[in-house]
Amino acid sequence: MSTRFFGAPVKRNEDRKLLTGQALFIDDVELPGMLHVAFLRSQVAHARLKHIDVSRARKRPGVVAVYVAEDYGDYWQPCPLLVQPPPIPGSTFNPRTQVPLARDKVRYVGEPLAVVVAESRYLAEDALDDIDVELESLSAVVDIERALKSSSARVHDDLGSNIAAHVHQMKGDYRKAAANAQIIVKRRFRYEHGISSPIETRGVVAHWNARGQQMTIWDTTQAPVFIRNGLAAMLGLGERQVRVIAPFVGGGFGPKIMMFYPEEVALPWISMRLNRPVKWIEDRLEHFVATTHERGQIHDAEIALAADGRILGVKDVFLHDTGAYNTYGLTVPINSQCTMLGPYVIPAYDSTFTAVFTNLPIVTPYRGAGRQHGVFVIERLLDLAARELDIDRAEIRRRNLIPPDAFPYNNEIIFQDFAPLSYDSGNYEPVLAKALDAIGYQRFLKEEQPKFREEGRCVGIGIACYVEGTGIGPYEGAKVQVQANGKVNVATGIGTQGQGHFTSFAQIVADQLGIDPSDVDIVTGDTDQFYWGAGTFASRGAVVAGNAVNEASAAVRRKALKLASDAFECAEEDLVLADGKVSIAGIPGKFIRLGELAQRANPMRGAVRPGTEPGLESTQYFGPPSGATANGVHAAIVEIDPLTFELKVLRYVVVHDCGTVINPMILEGQIHGGVAQGIGNAFFEKLAFDDQGQLLNASLADYLLPTALDVPRMELDHTVTPSPLNPLGIKGAGEAGAIPVGAVFAQAIEDALQLTSRKIELLEIPLSPSRLFELTRQEGT
Amino acid sequence: MQPDQHEIELTVNGTRYRRTVESRMLLSDFLRHELGLAGTHVGCEHGVCGACTILLESDPVRSCLMLAVQANGRALATVEGLASADGELHPVQQAMHAHHGLQCGYCTPGILMTMTAYLTEHPSPSEDEVREALSGNLCRCTGYQNIVDAMMDAAARMREEAS
Amino acid sequence: MKPAPFKYVLASSLDHALALKAEHGDEARFLAGGQSLIPAMNFRLARPSVLIDINGLTSLAGIDRPEAGQVRVGALMRYRALERDGEFLRSCPLFADALPHIAHPQIRNRGTIGGNLSHADPASELPALAVAMQAKMRIRSAAGGRTVAASDFFAGLLTTDLASDEMLVDITYPVLAPRSGACFMEVARRRGDFAIAGVAAVVTLDEERRCASVRLALCGVGETPVDAGAAALPMVGSRVTGESIDAVAAGVRELIAPSGNVHASADYQRHVAGELVRRAIRTAHQRISHAA
C-alpha cells in the first residue's frame, strides 16, 4: 500500500458543494405538502402543570393540529437512558430522563409543553399565543450547593434529594501522601462551560410514507444509527422501516448527539398521525434552552507535594450541575475526574463527585465534555504549588511528567468507556519542550516581560498541559465498494459535522486502492447506506471509523488483487495496484481497471464460487479495546489593559501529539476551532441565569461567541507518538484545542497583572474584564 | 386577519422573479423557501451571526433583517451566483478551498458574500482590516485563521484577475 | 422567530407616512433601516400592526449645510453613507470615531441615523454624540413640526420625546469649532457590541489655550445618554492638565448611575466610564494640539 495521500494536506472533497450553496442541510429539505412545527415551551423553570387549553389554537386558520402530552397516549414515555453509568463500585446513580412533552411538572425554562402543526412556521408561531397554560410555580433549584440542602425544592419529587449521582474513585493512598508532603495546597475552583452554539441550530424533518410503510427522518444528529433504532422501537416499526439521514450538519460539538430530544420524538409520530411530512427547525432563541448545555462544577481540591515539586497525591471533591435530567449518564463528570490526572505521575488520587439536579437545561457533553474542568483544577493547583515551592511553572510540570518508558500507563480509575483509564502511549517531555521553545518562555520571562513592565504594559505568559482520552469504542464500521465506473463508494454509520470525513476517509481508501481521493465518494449518516454504528463524539470519528475504513479498503484491495491474479493467471505478488487499475509489474500495458474488476465480481453468468461473495466490496468493523490518549501543551502571551481589563492575546502556541496524522490541514483546522471555542469559554461566553432559572442572555448579541477580532493567530506544532491500539496509530484530535485554554488564560492573566504579589488568585472560568475588575478590587481593598 | 399580501418583482443573481408574498415574510425565508436559493443560510434571525448575508445591489446586508417585500425592484446576489456559469469558482471560493477556510460550511455562504463585497471595495487590505471586515460573520468551526488567510489570498487573486 | 402579522405600507411621501402614523398611532411603526426593529419583531417583542416603510423617502436621505457651522443630516441617512462621506467626518469628527463601533458593516449598510436615535437605546453611540454635540432634532407630524434639543429628545429607556404621530426627520449638528478637538471611545465586550460604557468628548480651547468648554456625554451607563458636561465645568478657564482631567473623571464617576448588566457590574461600568473620560478628554485635547 502506498502512502501518497495518508499524511498529506489533501484539499477537501466536500468543499465545492458547500462553497456553491449546493450542500443539503436540514432546512433545505423541501417535500410536497410539508407542514411546519413549533413548540410551546415553559417560561418558568419549575412549576406544576395544572392545565393546558389548546382549543383556541386548534381553531386558528392554517393550524392543522395541536398536541399536548395526553395526546401522545402510550407513545408518551420518559426517554431511554442514553449512556449507562460506568460500573464503579459504591456509586449512586439516579436516572431521570427527559419526557417528550411535559405532563405533570415542568423542570426547566424551555421544556416543551405543547406542539403546534401548521401550514407554515409563521402560522405555527402565531398559534403558540393562543394556548393557555395554567402553572403553579415552585421554587427553582438553580444553585448546586443550595440544591443539596434539605430545605431545597426537589427537581424530581420522587427522589429524596437533588442528588443525581455520587461517585468515588481512588488510586493509591492519599492520606499517606498528604502525611508525607512538604506542602499541601488547597483551594476552591469554579469552572463553567457554556453552550456549543453551532451556527446551524438543530432540526428534524419526518416523512411517513403510508403506502410504503416507510419512515424517513432527516435529523441534525451526530448519531443517526441510534436515532433509527430508538425511534423504530418507540414507533412500533421495524428498524428496516426507518431511515435516518443526517445530511450536511452545520456544526455539532457534542449536543447534537443527545437523544432523544423531545422534537425528535414528536416529529415522526406527528407525520404518521397526519400522514404528511413535517419539519421543525430550532430557532436561535429555542437553541439557548432546548439544546443541551454544558455548565458548572465547583471543586474543593488539594495537592500534596514533596519539596522538589513532585506530586505525591491529589484529592478532589466536586459538585457537578447535571440540569433537569441526566440522560447522558456520568460522561461529563467522569471526564472531569479522569482528565484531572493529566500527563503527570500522581501516585495517589482520591476523587469524589456529586452530580446535582437543577431546574436548568440538560447538561451533556460539549467539546471537551468536562475535561476542561479537570485540566483547570490540576493546572491551577500546580501553579499555586510552584509559587509556594519557588519552582518555575514550566519546571514543576516537567518534573512530574510521566516518563516515556512508563507506557502503557495505568491510572487505575475507570474512564467513561467503562475501561480502566490507561494511557496507551505518549512522550510528553518533547511536547512541553517544543511549546516552551516556540513561545520563547525563558526569553519572555527574562528579557521581554521586564521591558514590558518598564513600559507600564501588563503582559503575561501562561502554559498548560493536558491529556485527552479520545477514540473510545464501542466500534464503527465501513462498507467500501468499487463501482463499475471505477469510483469507490464508502459508507459509514457515523455522522459528520465539518470534520472533513469526506476527505480524510477518502485518503485512506485512495492509498489502499491506488486511486485519487477525489474518486472516493463517502456517505456518512444515512442508515440505509450503512446499518451499524455509534456516532461522532469523543474525538472518535477518525480513530474508530477511520480504522474501519482502512480495514474494509484493505479487504477490497485483497479481493481486487485476487480477481486480477485469476484474470491474468499470475501471482498476486506480481501485481501493482495504482492509478485506478491493476497491472502486472514491469508490463505497464497489461492492466485491468478497478471498475472492470468490479463488474467481473458481479457476473451475469457462471457461478460465484463457495466461500466468495459477489461485488468488489467489503464491510469491516473496528472496535478499539479502550481509548487512545492524545496530549498537548498550550502556551499564550496575553496583554491586559490594567485599567479597563480588556485583553489581547499576543501569541498562542499549541504543540500536540495525536498520533499518526491523516490530514495535517484538517487537523490544524480542528485545533484552531477548538482553541477559538476555548477562548470563548475562558473569556467571553457565560450563561447568565437569574435565581429563577431564567437565562438572561439568550441571544447571540448577549451570549458572546468570539469573532475574527477575538481569536488570535495560532502557531501550531506537533509530535507523533502512534497509538498501539489501532493499526493506523491514530489518536483523536477534535477536542484537544478547547481543553486547556481556561487554565492558560487564568495563569497568563495572573502573570500579566502580577496578581500573585497582591495575593489575588484566579480560580474560576469564565473570566471577563468586569470580573477581573471585581476580583482585583475586592482583594485590593 | 387576512394575510397582507404583496406582489413583488426582483432580480437575484441576474434572474428576474415575480412572486406574491405576505408582508411579514423575511427576505431570508423568501430566498430559501420561495425561490429555492437555499445556499443563503439562517443562523440567528436577529442579525448577529451573518450566515444570511447577501448583497443588496453591491452592499452586504443581513437577509434576516429585511422583509421580502422590501426587496421589490431591487437586485440581489447570493452565493449561488458567485461561480461562473461554466462552474469555475470565484476567487473567494477558490481561496477558501485552498486554505481550508470552511469546516461544516454553514457560515460559509455569508462569509463569501461579505468577502466579495469588501474586496471589491478594498483590493489590498491588511490582516487587521480583513479581521475587522469578517467580524460580523460568526464561525464556530475554524477559529477564523484559515478564513483570514483565504481572504488575503482572495484579495491577491482578485487583484490579479483585475489586472 | 418569525414576525407576527402586520400590514405593510410603502410610504409614497413624507406626508403620506405622517398621515398613516397619525391614523394608526402607536399601533404603527416606521420602518427605516429595520436593524433594531426587525430583530425585535422576529423575537415578537415588537408587534406593530402597521409597518410604514419610509425607505422610499429620498428627501430624508441627504446631508446639507443649512447655515455656516452646521450640518443637517436626514433621518434616513445610513451609517455607511456617513462613513463614506469624508467631508462630513471632518466636520463632525466624533462620527469618525463612533461609526466603526456600530455593529458590523452589514448592519451599517442598512441602519439609519434617524432610526437609531428614535430607538433611543442608551447603550448606542449616536444618542451620546447627539447630546455631546448639542444637536437639534427636527420633528414632523401631519399637524406640523417642531425642533427639540438632543438633551430633551431622549426621555428614558428606549423612549423619546416623539409623540405617537411624530417622526424625527433630520438632525442638525454644529461642525467642530476652531481650536477644538473631539474624541469618542468605548469599551464593549466585542467590536460592534453595545457599549459597556462610551464617552464622547469635545474640548475647545481659548486663544490662550485655556479650556473654553468641554462637552461630555456618555452612553451605556444610564437609561438615556448622560450629559456629563457639569462634571467638566471645573476644567473651564484653566489649562488642561492631567490633574484636571482626573478630577473630571472622578466627577463623572460620581455623576453616573449605571445599573450593571450581564456583561458588566455597575461598579465596573462606573470605573471604566471614568477611565474612558480620562482617555477621551486627553485624546481630544491632543488632537487640538496636533491640528494647531
UniProtKB/TrEMBL annotation, chain A:
Q: Which residues form the Aldehyde oxidase/xanthine dehydrogenase a/b hammerhead domain?
A: 20-139
Task: Output the Gene3D superfamilies linked to this UniProt entry.
Answer: Aldehyde oxidase/xanthine dehydrogenase, a/b hammerhead, Aldehyde oxidase/xanthine dehydrogenase, molybdopterin binding domain
Keyword annotations of the record: Molybdenum, Oxidoreductase
What Pfam families has UniProt attached to this entry?
Answer: Ald_Xan_dh_C (PF01315), MoCoBD_1 (PF02738), MoCoBD_2 (PF20256)
- Answer yes or no on keyword Transcription: no
Q: Which GO terms describe its molecular function?
A: iron ion binding; oxidoreductase activity
Q: What is this protein called?
A: Xanthine dehydrogenase family protein molybdopterin-binding subunit
From TrEMBL, chain B:
Sorted alphabetically, which keywords does the UniProt record give? 2Fe-2S, Iron, Iron-sulfur, Metal-binding, Oxidoreductase
| GO MF annotations, alphabetized | 2 iron, 2 sulfur cluster binding; metal ion binding; oxidoreductase activity
Q: Which PROSITE patterns match?
A: 2FE2S_FER_1 (PS00197), 2FE2S_FER_2 (PS51085)
Q: Name one Pfam family in it.
A: Fer2
Q: Does the keyword Oxidoreductase apply?
A: yes
Please state every residue range assigned to the domain named 2Fe-2S ferredoxin-type: 6-82
InterPro entries membership? 2Fe-2S-bd (IPR002888), 2Fe-2S-bd_dom_sf (IPR036884), 2Fe-2S_ferredoxin-like_sf (IPR036010), 2Fe-2S_ferredoxin-type (IPR001041), 2Fe2S_fd_BS (IPR006058), Beta-grasp_dom_sf (IPR012675), Diverse_Oxidoreductases (IPR051452)
Entry keyword Iron:
yes
Superkingdom is Bacteria
The name of this protein is: (2Fe-2S)-binding protein
Record lineage:
Bacteria, Pseudomonadati, Pseudomonadota, Alphaproteobacteria, Hyphomicrobiales
UniProtKB/TrEMBL annotation, chain C:
The record's listing under SUPFAM superfamilies reads:
CO dehydrogenase flavoprotein C-terminal domain-like, FAD-binding/transporter-associated domain-like
Tell whether Oxidoreductase is among the UniProt keywords: yes
> FAD-binding PCMH-type domain: which residues?
1-178
Pfam families in UniProt: CO_deh_flav_C, FAD_binding_5
One GO MF term: oxidoreductase activity
Q: Which UniProt keywords are listed?
A: FAD, Flavoprotein, Oxidoreductase
Task: Write down the InterPro entries for this protein, in alphabetical order.
Answer: CO_DH_flav_C, CO_DH_flav_C_dom_sf, Diverse_Substr_Oxidored, FAD-bd_PCMH, FAD-bd_PCMH-like_sf, FAD-bd_PCMH_sub1, FAD-bd_PCMH_sub2, Mopterin_DH_FAD-bd
The transmembrane segments are none
What is this protein's name? Xanthine dehydrogenase family protein subunit M
